[in-house]
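In pairs, describe these two lines:
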Amino acid sequence: MKVKTVLVSQPRPKLESSPFFDLQKKRKIKIDFIPFIHVKGATVKEIRLQKIDLTKFSAIILTSRYAVDHYFRICEKMRYKVPDSMKYFCQSEVVALYLQNHVVYRKRKIYVGKRTFEELCPLISKHKNEAFLLPTTDKLKPEVPKLLNELEVKWRESIFYKTVISDLSHLADVTYDILVFFSPSGIESLLYNFPEFKQNNTRIAVFGSITKKAVEDNGLNVDIYAPTPKFPSMSMALDNYIGKANRKK
């Protein structure tokens, strides 16, 4: 079946150079962006109830841009001036570059992983004398604390922000040819908003093995998957699928 409409369960990209916009023009399709989940920051009271003293940490582990924003938001609300000596361990270059929104990059000690948390671990293990804080979400992947414990470093986890299901009632009478998901939380939101959801002719695209498992565990079919060696990005996987589906016979 041909593809004319795609719904990406994330906010609309801010950069006009996004490959999704190129895909839309190339394949002459309509792509909508609607976040199925949103992030709600923890309050200062909630941080204090976790018995977190920001002054006790000499290093911060940052796994996402949300972690960056909410760490500095809490620091500001608590009137805590982050010392210049603070060490930042960023999971990826994207996170490290985003850190520039909050600190003078060249004057800080910043350590950058390649992409996954596992790839960041060797850098963390070289600094066993540091006290690490992991500002995170309430949906932290279980592999993260497991890997940190294996490193035998001093660390604490603190929930600085929460993942909240968005209200999607305005989509009740709308159908799309492809739904695109990047996390299990997106699937959870879909089924929470539409408990009677039937896939029928809707194709589902997912990014990552954990998201794929969430789809299949709920009795749905995965039609498009990324990343793969051939299609490392979701836009590339979609382009390949849509190209074949819309080919004139």
Remarks:
- The two ends are 11 Å apart (CA to CA).
- The mean pLDDT is 93.
- The longest strand covers residues 154-165.
- The chain is about 35% helix and 20% strand.
